[in-house]
Design brief:
This protein folds into three domains: about 10-135, Lipocalin (Beta Barrel); about 145-280 and about 365-440, Alpha/Beta hydrolase fold, catalytic domain (Rossmann fold), CATH 3.40.50.1820; about 285-360, no CATH class. The strands form three sheets. Strands 1, 2, 3, 4, 5, 6, 7, 8, 9 and 10 form a ten-stranded antiparallel β-sheet that branches. Helix content is about 30%, strand content about 30%. A hairpin with a 2-residue loop joins β5 (about 80-85) and β6. The model is unreliable at about 1-15 and about 20-30 (pLDDT under 50). The longest helix is centred in the C-terminal third of the chain and has 19 residues, at about 300-320. The chain is α+β, with helices and mostly antiparallel strands.
């Protein structure tokens, strides 16, 4: 769950370097015995928590989802799965990185170790195998709600999602979850949807256009197209029987909090909005701040940071068409022997990268005017240990917003971008989350 972080921080790099390819042939046949629901525990660095996997085989591939309540995961897509004989590997996303579970299958039990893959000095590195986990095949527990599949049209795209509906038939509030950057799917919002539904609040989560089972291509659009998708999702939820009129709204995460203000400006009929780790600064400013945080954490000072900023600004100019790739290459050549450059791991996306079109349409966006124009109740939640977005600058911007009613702000102590706390390789959610979201929505009348 991240904002517009630079292209070199992508889960795809982790997959290519550490997770290997999908199973095929004999391995795929062997993986058929993995089908089902597996529940158990995982422990590392003295931190233990419950974990469960849903594993599915078909078409020579092994896929699945993970429930890891302590980290805020429910039906979250595994980002890699493979099997070699009786050895199996599954990877779970971390806020920046991945946690690889390496185990051995014996009948209805999988035992193994954990291997975190994290960013160290601009490079993806393994922290080594350690700790332990054990999963057993069991019957999946029931939940106090139903999950209905839903599709809706938004422009040229057909968006697919799921609605979490409490079993209680009384009219209930409803929310649409708008996820962050990249190929996000309904799994990115499913943990919160599960918690909301248990509390009597309906929730719609959906696959971003071009991801999961949704058609279209988010890379060929910008925030306007994503805002239209969010608006159509809200209209779909509002027209569903059992949803309480006047009590529907958005919950967004990270980049999704650039999308929601655009949707509201364009007339989305929301009655409230919850902004989670929402960058209230421009896209370009958020990008620069990320590099500043990275270099500061590695001991570099203002002079080196400003040199890095000059390079990144040229990269921005190339994206926007006001500088040439050759000029950027020359700037990189002038910097490549500097210590800060080696530590930063700066590697701009290729000119023909499919995401360049999206970056051109979003890089210049500044949400200030749209935030000022919000005239529904809004709650802005930040973690004071978030290193992905400029938290203080965002707090200042929201605090000075002209919107009415005044935005409410909550800062979670020691929490990161995904509201997890702790420095272990198995982070845990802040104690206040997601309870504060549930209570705030329930209090909207």
């Amino acid at each position: 769950m991240v904002a517009n972080v630079p292209a070199w921080i992508r889960i795809s790099l982790i997959l290519a370097a550490f997770l290997g390819s999908w199973p095929h042939g004999e391995a795929a046949e062997r993986s058929a015995s993995l089908d089902g629901y597996w529940s158990g525990w995982a422990e590392r660095d003295g931190v233990s928590s419950q974990v469960a996997l849903r594993l599915i085989t078909g078409g020579g591939e092994l896929t699945g989802t993970v429930d890891w309540p302590a980290m805020g995961y429910f039906r979250t897509d595994l980002i890699g799965a493979r099997i070699d004989g009786s050895n199996v590997a599954f990877s779970v996303p971390l806020p920046v990185g991945a946690l690889k579970l390496l185990g051995a299958l014996q009948a209805d039990t999988i035992n193994g170790t954990l291997e975190p893959i994290v960013l160290v000095h601009g490079e993806w590195q393994s922290l080594g195998k350690g700790g332990a986990f054990e999963l057993r095949r069991v019957a999946e527990p029931s939940v106090p709600y139903v999950i209905e599949e839903a599709t809706f049209q938004s422009g040229d795209a057909t968006i697919a999602g799921s609605i979490f509906l409490p079993l209680d038939k009384t009219p209930r509030p409803g929310v649409v979850f708008v996820a962050g950057s990249g190929d996000t799917t309904r799994g990115d919002g499913a943990f919160l949807a599960d918690r909301l539904a248990r509390a009597g609040i309906a929730a719609l989560v959906y696959d971003k256009r071009g991801a999961g089972r949704s058609t279209g291509n988010w890379r060929q659009g910008g925030f306007e197209e994503l805002a239209a998708d969010a608006t159509e999702a809200l209209k779909l939820l509002q027209h569903r029987p059992g949803i309480q009129q006047g009590r529907t709204g958005f919950v967004c995460q990270s980049q999704g909090c650039w999308v929601v203000p655009v949707a509201l400006r364009n007339g989305a009929p929301a009655h409230f909005a919850v902004m989670q780790s929402g960058p209230a600064v421009s896209v370009a400013e958020e990008d620069l701040d990320f590099y500043s945080v990275t270099l500061t954490s590695q001991g570099f000072g203002p002079l080196e940071i400003e040199e890095a900023f000059a390079l990144v600004r040229i990269s921005h100019q190339v994206i926007l068409g006001s500088a040439t790739p050759a000029g950027l290459e020359a700037a990189i050549a002038n910097c490549q022997d500097r210590a800060w450059f080696k530590e930063l791991g700066f590697s701009p996306s290729p000119v023909d990268d499919p995401e360049r079109a999206f970056e051109r349409r979003t890089l210049a966006y500044d949400p200030a005017i749209d935030i000022d124009a919000i005239h529904i109740p809004s709650l802005w939640i930040y973690g004071d240990a978030d290193t992905i977005i400029p938290v203080q600058a965002s707090l200042d911007r929201v605090g000075q917003a002209k919107s009415s009613p005044r935005p409410e702000i909550k800062v979670l102590r020691d929490a990161g971008h995904s509201f997890t706390v702790g420095k272990s390789t198995i982070p845990r959610l802040a104690d206040e989350y997601p309870g504060l979201v549930i209570e705030w929505i329930k209090n909207r009348h």
